[in-house]
């Protein structure tokens, strides 16, 4: 008799592999980010701001796939720490613009080695990592398109 529930095993679930992999990657980031005094979500926000210098909260939420209820408290903590400023846009009072402070900008140099260190910790060759990133990007694009976010 064929097991009709073979597809229900935990190790067959894509969602579980993504979840477990994400948790393990985040664990590897923790000691590196602890040295900077930031959390993983704060690191992602800083990556955006190091790239763009200033962004609206709305745009940051779109790029980080976070809603404002999650993003705003994190940004408030970053502002209290002196890493960013948040100001209402002069062009549109409803929009809040996030900018790096000198302290937030200075973390960029301290964080410079993190991406390379993290790639090395995967113990995977560069071509496999490139294919994995492409596959995950395709999956994310497909999921967001399906759910009306693209």
TrEMBL record:
Domain (HTH marR-type): residue spans on this chain: 11-141
Gene Ontology MF terms in the entry: DNA binding; DNA-binding transcription factor activity
SMART domains: HTH_MARR
One GO-annotated biological process of the protein: response to stress
Primary location group: cytoplasm
Pfam families membership: Staph_reg_Sar_Rot
CC per GO annotation: cytoplasm
Compartment(s): Cytoplasm
Superkingdom as given in the UniProt entry: Bacteria
InterPro entries in alphabetical order: HTH_MarR-typ (IPR000835), MarR/SlyA-like (IPR039422), Transc_reg_Sar_Rot_HTH (IPR055166), WH-like_DNA-bd_sf (IPR036388), WH_DNA-bd_sf (IPR036390)
PROSITE patterns: HTH_MARR_2
Keywords: Cytoplasm, DNA-binding, Transcription, Transcription regulation
Protein's name in the database: Transcriptional repressor OhrR
Source organism (scientific name): Bacillus sonorensis L12
């Amino acid at each position: 008799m064929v097991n009709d529930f073979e597809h229900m095993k935990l190790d067959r679930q894509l969602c579980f592999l993504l979840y477990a992999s994400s948790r393990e990657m985040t664990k590897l980031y923790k000691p590196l980010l602890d040295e900077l005094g930031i959390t993983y979500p704060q690191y992602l926000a800083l990556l955006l701001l190091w790239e763009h210098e200033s962004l609206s909260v709305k745009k940051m939420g779109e790029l980080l796939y976070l809603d404002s209820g999650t993003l705003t408290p994190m940004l408030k903590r970053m502002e209290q720490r002196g890493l960013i400023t948040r100001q209402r846009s002069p062009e549109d009072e409803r929009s809040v613009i996030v900018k790096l402070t000198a302290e937030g900008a200075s973390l960029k140099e301290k964080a410079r080695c993190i991406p390379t260190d993290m790639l090395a910790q995967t113990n995977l060759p560069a071509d496999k990592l490139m294919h994995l990133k492409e596959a995950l990007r395709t999956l994310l694009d497909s999921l967001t398109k399906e759910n009306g976010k693209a």
